[in-house]
Amino acid sequence: MRFIPQYRKASSSTSSTSPSSNSAEHKDDLQKSQRKLHALSPGDQPRPLTAICARPIPNSYWATPLLLACEYPWTPKNPHKPKLDALLRAGVRTFIDLTEFGELIPYNTILSQRCALLGIDTSEIEYHRFAIRDRCLPESVNHMYRVLDTLRDNESRGRICAVHCRGGIGRTGMVIGCWLVDSGVAKDGVEALSIIAKEWKSVEKCKRYPHSPETGPQFEFVAKFNPSPKMKSGTLELELEAA
């Protein structure tokens, strides 16, 4: 049976809680950093991007000014490491989950609660799941294209996305690599892998897991990846004009 990406949006209830001054200052600093990066062409942007934009959590990196790659952001057994809160404070408003149903304890149901604690309007939050089996490839190239369509939609709206799997290594690296190609940041998959390698060296778990993506087939998938047919044929431009 063909997998259909699941889209879920957090509760639209709002909170009257005011954000902390530290959270507001962090957001202001991030926005300043992002403006600096947006002013540069992709080829002129420093690598790793953490040279300008600080990472929200140790095992994360900025693939683009609007796209964060990271490990699974929820650790209910260790509430003293609020990774999810750190992402929200960094401006992440769209979460793209590559894990399978039942693989880990879900966090999408508690997004509203975390937003309320931080004074964030929960109606701004989007959660998408595009399941890929651990250490494997997507079930089809079209499955990957659907992930990229979601990233493209969010980028067009100026939203910050976080893409993650379990460890942020294999599936996440594969999606990031394909996005770098599809969005034109990288000229091809080989260059995309080179960009990821530079970013990955700055991640905390790099010494334990020296490469991202994780498996040979995942590397090959990125290296040989071709942009979405929409990007090649101009279909995307027609869709935008009709919208």
From TrEMBL:
Listed InterPro entries: Prot-tyrosine_phosphatase-like, PTP, PTP-SAK, Tyr_Pase_AS, Tyr_Pase_dom
Gene3D superfamilies: Protein tyrosine phosphatase superfamily
Any matching Pfam family: PTP-SAK
Low complexity: compositionally biased ranges: 11-23
Region: Disordered, residue numbers: 1-44
Entry annotated with the keyword Metal-binding: no
Domain of life according to the entry: Eukaryota
PROSITE patterns hit by this protein: TYR_PHOSPHATASE_1, TYR_PHOSPHATASE_2
Tyrosine specific protein phosphatases domain boundaries: 142-196
SUPFAM superfamilies: (Phosphotyrosine protein) phosphatases II
Keyword Protease recorded: no
GO molecular function, one term: phosphatase activity
Keywords: Hydrolase
Coiled coil: none
Protein name (record): Tyrosine specific protein phosphatases domain-containing protein
Organism encoding this protein: Hebeloma cylindrosporum
